[in-house]
Amino acid sequence: MFGYQKPTLDRSFSVMAGIILLGGLGLWLAGNLYLPLLNGLTVQYIEMGQAIYLLTMMFYSGYIAYTFQQQPAIAKFWLWTVLWWLLLFERSISWGRDFWPDVPKIYYRLLSIVFIALPLITLCLPTIRQEIARRWRYEAIPIWYIIFMCLFFLLADAAEHHRFGYSLLVWDSYKQDLIEELLEIPCLLAIGAMSVYLQNRDRKHYLLTAHVVKAP
After folding, report:
1. Which pLDDT score is estimated for 215?
2. Distance between CA atoms of residues 17 and 29, nearest Å
């Protein structure tokens, strides 16, 4: 699909990258040292904030797709990312179980299969694959956002599943859920920052080009 051509990497360390890194470290320290659990309310508020953030990014990506009506391939690509934001949102609310806990688990498993399958199945569409291949070959990839996304995902996973480094991440076991949720925040911010980075570049290049072409 991508051939053997290496992608171009944007290695510049932006202000947003610094905010994600320092913010992630600050949240981790605050969770271990200062933030109270409030009988689980703190974790619930964090989860609610994450859900609102994911919904916001989903609708914003949909808006970006709308602005590219004259560029169908780009519009379809950003509509495809809407499915990924929807998947992350549904996962953040346990596929709806947080709101309707009494519904049998089988229904939530079916829902999870549907939401996971949607972005994967649509990946088979030629337009989506070609647009991904084009970006891989010809556009710069913001490497620091990817590094921080992977780093904080692995840290959150280690906190949740007692993996390597758990004792360094979680200083008191009763704060495990809190630390996991806090470490997910910079991971999600990195995904959002990378998305906005690509969206702004698309808008600057394609919308400006279209404007210049139409100008008398």
Report:
1. 42
2. 19
